[in-house]
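To whoever picks this up:

The parser on our side crashed when reading a file containing two proteins. I've narrowed it down to the boundary between the first structure block and the second sequence. Both blocks are reproduced below exactly, byte for byte. First block:
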Amino acid sequence: MLSIAISGVGSHVVLLILFSNFGGPPFGQNLLIKNKLISVPIMTQQIRHVNVTRYVTPLREGGSLPAIVEADDDFLYVLKFRGAGQGVKALIAELIGGEIARALGLRVPEIVFANVDPAFGRTEPDEEIQDLLKFSEGLNLALHYLSGAINFDPVVNRVDSFLASKIVWLDSFLMNVDRTVRNTNLLMWQKELWLIDHGASLYFHHAWSNWEEQSLKPFVQVKDHVLLPWASTLDEVDETFRSILTKEKIMSIVGLIPTQWLVNESAPDANENRKVYEQFLLNRIHHSENFTKEAQHARQVPV
């Protein structure tokens, strides 16, 4: 839980924030108080659990049919369903990608584990949604819904070169193919840039057998990245991010994956599968020059 004491001192507000081992503020590294976003430190690596209580509306974007739902903590979330197209592998990519982005200081809505009760979809009149809820019973993944956020538009919005380089490095590291001009998966909220939708990352796990080879490859799809034209400080970012993403940090993030999500027909050993995710990410960090140079090369190629 999060305990907050607020007291006024002249024109200032003093926040006394005490963290326990059971969670963090509603927006991870940021706390919203009276419509003002305040950055606070995260002291523990935790993912909260919530129970979905109300299906609000579908978000008919992409093939996964995410939805806005309400949970038993009275917050709204964007729920990603385990019963959708890519199953739990998309949820694993969302969890790893989002928490790595957060560890690197980028803004990501809080990620929570969201439980869908077997009885939840019985009163849903839409058969497609009813089936999705039925196949998604149990543990799913959700992100805090940023009410009032608008899609990032590269024509209207601008980011500085250092932030652009951070996001390009992140997506090259994760092999995230879904941050293009057509679908930026970036939101402007509270005048800040927020990252969403990392479910298309880590696509090696859909084949699985050649993960070692995939971990060493450059990310050629970076040529389509929406922020690539502004990513001029990739070498500086590479040095900084390599120092942050230690073996211990990677293991702590991969350790968040629920064991039940790591069991599949082609690779039934959950412990071995967890080690594969760890080693894949560590290999990419240790050989980050492969994807960093690819991004720098892509910047030089005329469009």
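<<boundary where parser fails>>
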Amino acid sequence: MSEELGLLVRDIGDAGVAEMSTTPGLAAAVDQHVAALRDDIGVHPKPDVLMDYLHVFAEDAFRRGWWPDSTRDWEFVRIVAVCWMMRQTAF
């Protein structure tokens, strides 16, 4: 992942996780993505597994032409979900 893409993904994750506390709809959407991710990559994935998933996902989204225009689009919510999971594994 390029440095620019990495910074953008980090910013999306930070902003999205912060917004979850004041936006119940976003929190619910993130919760659904977390459940789907746990089905795909395991209930308690290690940080390196989450980081690998995030790199591949973000690179693919950008190659398809995705750009973070909305905090409600599928890709934005998926990135926030992975970032939220990464924060949870840090505790």
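After patching the parser it read the second block fine. The chain has one domain: 3-89. Helices lie at 3-20, 24-41, 47-63, 74-89.
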